[in-house]
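User: Hi! I'm a student and our assignment asks us to look at how structure tokens line up with a sequence. Could you show me two examples?

Assistant: Happy to help. In each example below, the sequence comes first and the structure tokens follow. Example one:
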Amino acid sequence: MTDNSKPSVDTPEDEQPLLTHLFEMRDRLLRVVLTVLLLFVGVFYFANDLYHIVATPLMAHLPDGASMISTKPAGTFFTPMKLALVLSIFLAMPFILYQMWAFVAPGLYTHERKLIIPLLISSTLLFYAGMVFAYYVVFPLMFGFFVNVAPEGVTVMTDISEYLDFVLKIFFAFGVAFEVPIATILLVWTGATTPESLAGKRPYIVVGAFVIGMMLTPPDIISQTLLALPMWVLFEIGLIASRYFLRLKKERQEEEELEDELDSDEEMEAALDRYEAEEHGVPSSPEDDNNKP
């Protein structure tokens, strides 16, 4: 007796959802890369001027006649180019975050989408605010301290490549540190913790802020403190905002539960009306027929 059943074979339709997501991810990555490259082409022309702006906080504290140096033969070309590339990525950050959100948005609920959009906008603004704070507040104090504590007979002549790596690290550290309110809101919104629990752990969080400041900044008390204190203040702001968002979440849940109860009450009343009509021999109306399950 022959078996006419055919073995199951995965069809292209089974793989289509995964391939669709992969193709979408590829397209969005290509858009991000193309955007960064276009920005880089426009920014690279002003690379030297931009480097001068970045180096101003240090040069303002150098002694008269001192200047920055380049110890590498091609440093005068590749260092401004590196700055232009990193700046292009920073400028493209809103577009990058939007592409990330657009990729995951179909899998989110409506109330989650309403939350994600303001969080993306605020996280971008906070990242830029951290960089601005580092440039206008941290750099003048930090470089003034470094130059003033130089031993007698030592001329401060910083290499342009070493300086760029240093300031980019500080920019990134303060940009990420200023995201503390967003992290706090997300932890509370997802149910991982509560505002009361975070408030009770405030002493540990303050100590952790100073530890993070020690790891992300140079080994001087000024930059560590200037990073730890804003993180503490931003944590308190995130704690207040998390209570507000949590209250909104509870109100939305109560509204959804009330709507579900109203729908169930309407269905129950319709069922009772049909039952009474059948008991008295009265034919049900077309609307009642449509409400039948």
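Example two works the same way, sequence first and then tokens:
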Amino acid sequence: MKLRIFDSISQWWQWLDKLQQQPTVHTVITDEQHVCINCSTAFTGRFCPQCGLRANQERMTAKNVIQGFLDIWGFGSRNMLRSIHELFWRPGYMMRDYLDGHQPLYYPPFEMLIIMTLIFSLVCSLRNIEPSADDAFVYSDVFQRYGAPPLVISIFAVIDKVLLWLHAHPAYSAITLDIFYIVASWIVFLRRMSFFEVFLSQIYISCQMQIVGTLWVLFTGSEAYYNVPPFAVPLLIGLPLLCYDYAQLYRLHLWPTLWRTVLTLLLTLLLILAVGALPILFVKIF
């Protein structure tokens, strides 16, 4: 009985995985003829080849006005909504499709990350989440204790201003610290993918994490205490989500994905600590 249940679950999982692997297809173009209402060009397809106007352009309605407003944030575009949907339905396969040349189907990763970061910042502001300045690390204070030269202290005083600004804006701090995550994931998951392919994939994963972090902050009113660095996503949510992403992206089974994901998180923390400690070690030794 238990064997039959296990076989049924296994067959269902294989069916679901095959369904998720199917790429999104473009809208089928019909042979219907159109005449552009803007430049009077006769054409076949969805857009006028002369001026770019839609074939089914409508008069201004409330729907058009709302869509125009949403276009400011990128949500008026169908590929933005499609991208968000597939970031949770088939994230790894979506990233593979994008890297294989299906870019027009999905919202550009960098623009999407900027929009999600702005939304996260807005939600943090609405929920009155302001990181304490007392928790911020300041280099100049440490260098003064070690008796560093005034020039070194003045240089790192400028760097401290940048670090304090990032500390006060966790969304942008996450983008900055994500560089370490990209390097760590490239080292751990280097499997027939170039660094830049890993880089683009990780940008989409960052968008996914920003969405989850935004929802978490919105409904709880605080950032998760144990989170997935550098994102405001609880570890118990972020870790399975990362495993889900990487299993599809690199076509790995459960256990190889799990230990590589944990190793990526640990390596990210080590890289952050190492880079942060380098200036102090240099001044202390020399």
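Here is something you could point out in your write-up. The beta strands are 33-35, 42-44.
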